[in-house]
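Lab channel / #folding
Pinned by the channel admin:
"Please post every new chain as: sequence first, then the structure tokens as a reply. Keep commentary short and put observations after the output so the thread stays searchable."

First post following the new format, from NK:
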Amino acid sequence: MGKIADSYYSIDPWQISESGFDPGRSKVSESIFSLANEYMGVRGYFEEGYTGEQLLGSYFNGIYENSPKENHVKYKGIVSRSHFMVNAVDWLYTRIWYDGCQLDLATATIENFERHLDLRSGLLSRSFDWLPNEETRIHIVFERILDMEEATSGYQRIQFESKNADKLLEVVMGIDFNTVHTSERQNFWEELSKRSKDAEIQIASQTISTKQQILAGCTFSTSTSLDTHVVERDKFIGLKFNVKLEGEKPLTIERHAVNIANKTAEDLTVLQSKYEKAKQMKSFDDMLLQSTRYWDHVWKKEDIQIEGDESNQQGIRFCIFQLHQTYHGQNPTHNIGAKGLTGEAYGGHAFWDTETSCLPFYLLTNLTAAKNLLEFRYSTLPEARMRATQLDCIGACYPIATLNGHEASDLWQHASLQFQPSTGVAYGIWHYVNVSNDTDFLYGHGLEMLAEISRFLVSRGDWSPNGEFGFYGVMGPDEFQMMVNHNMYTNYMAKRTLDYTLAVLAQCEIDYKDRYAAIIDKVGITREEMAYWESCASNMLLLKESSGLIEQHDGFFKLPHIDIHSIPIEDFPLYDHWSYDRIYRNDMIKQPDVLMFLFLYNQSFTKEEKQINYEYYEPKTIHESSLSPSIHSILAAELGKKEEAYTFFEFATRMDLDNFNRNTREGLHTTSIAAAWMNIVYGFGGIRTDADTLIIAPIIPEEWTSYTFKITYKQRLIQISVTQSDVNITLLEGESLFIELYQDSKELADEPLRMDVR
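Reply from TO:
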């Protein structure tokens, strides 16, 4: 696959560490050392200012701007203006001078640089000795942490110590809305108000076109009384501290920042009231203790332990940590962007892989978060309905990329031809209900979404002269095939959506007549419409041969063949080195398409069907998507291809830590991080959640001594431990239940289950 690790950070099971500062890796490290709490995120930039290469990024979930550039292609259905997660307030702003010399790691003389991200506490720390002149050495420690529960709060602590500094140290700490959104090269904020009182400063600003607001305030405390002055300029307010360092006595400045973000313009008095409630300051040490307790609770339920592989042990914990930072179900109006809250690439948008690749993690760790991911889709159902009309259809068409429910992609071949988001939402509803049995959600918001998605699908599909129903002029997950007919991912996922919607409607009519009547009335479904859906599903064209081999789309088997291993390594990524149309003229595959729905609806296919399709499509796939290797690894593990499964897995947990794709500088691959978790739990662990019973069929890589993971399934906390010789399954919490272990039905109760590993 041509991916080579760029190893840099120290291997440690519980922290990410950098010893010595390498300016050439500064932006990569900013991504790696990002902190977030779902509500807000901040890259690991140097708060004291840095004139070298950097992306000073501060982001808030759901705070966005409209693109200043209009798409002048005026064809109906093509987006005229995109939107993106906007770079927001720098609430960590710090500047430091000594004897007229400003601290800037791009030019400063420093020694003993260390940076650490502690996965057990969420603490990011950085320390070094600054030598502003030949006579002076100042030891500085920067620390920051975000409150994972009171999410509007962030904390910063700076400590100074010097034995020979005889001049004043000047420190300015403030709040700055002069941030530049790098991809657009401009600032998108206008100041509304600012104020200061004693050790507190505050400023409110709003975005230029969307008029979303952030009220940001900071309260400071110092270890000794300091001379302070207020500093103000446009979109900025701060305090200047004059510091006299005395002998070995360190000086500490702490900041408690509160950021009240508002997606819909409110009177500033409302934001001020919210701010006042949130600003009660904890000490930094109290916050650290609280955060450590929070993460201890997370790790007790969700840790994955790997013996015999320190690199992947660190990697998977980093993945779990970042998944929790990005999203933990705090707010149903939040979603998961492709880069989380760690960078500007992909505009911060949520894509179709939220429901297919991220949802499984939350289904087996945090059902509330899983439900809230789907509630985001319900909250944007009106926009999905609007999008369907733009495509001359009815019902609800969910966007390929979005922050606010509106389609953000102005690439028509993606926005107008790909319907994975809509069938992905339907799949997510089915998968969530299958694990949770949450019929209250299903017969309410879930069914309304299912009905509108089904209505869209049948309006977008059409009939062949032979009486077969399917989809024409579409693009499946394999984005190297455009405007094809009967892409099998699209056809199959649509059929499953229609069948499921009809089954839910029928069951709802039996069990909840009042709710059935309400949903029929609200959505306006008729018996005739449901009969038509059934006809479309029954006659859906599925291109499957008697051997079980599925043709990716009509005519795929007749495409010219290309040996992907003959492509020079310097040609990758192909989008940068091949003309756009050249990519579409052969049977090369970007990422799993047929194999993707074989994974999603895994128990609906025989092992023989999975094997023949895996062996046909895997050699054609170049994995230009970071999600691709994990799906291949999971299927390879199921098919007994242990070495192949491990080869695909090798860079799953360390995609960003080792910068395999050479683009970690743009932000973390959030959905790939979720896929790395699946790679262990669904792949090596053999977990399947698409049947009525929990299925477990573990294997273990030869490279590992053992591994252990926990899942929460139907209110039971279950631990699975696998060694080279046996499997042990323990019910840690909850009532007994029946599971399928290596195709045998077993009752999991008080006594652990043990079986030889296969």
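NK: The first helix runs from residue 26 to 32.
TO: also worth noting, The chain has 19 helices and 29 strands.
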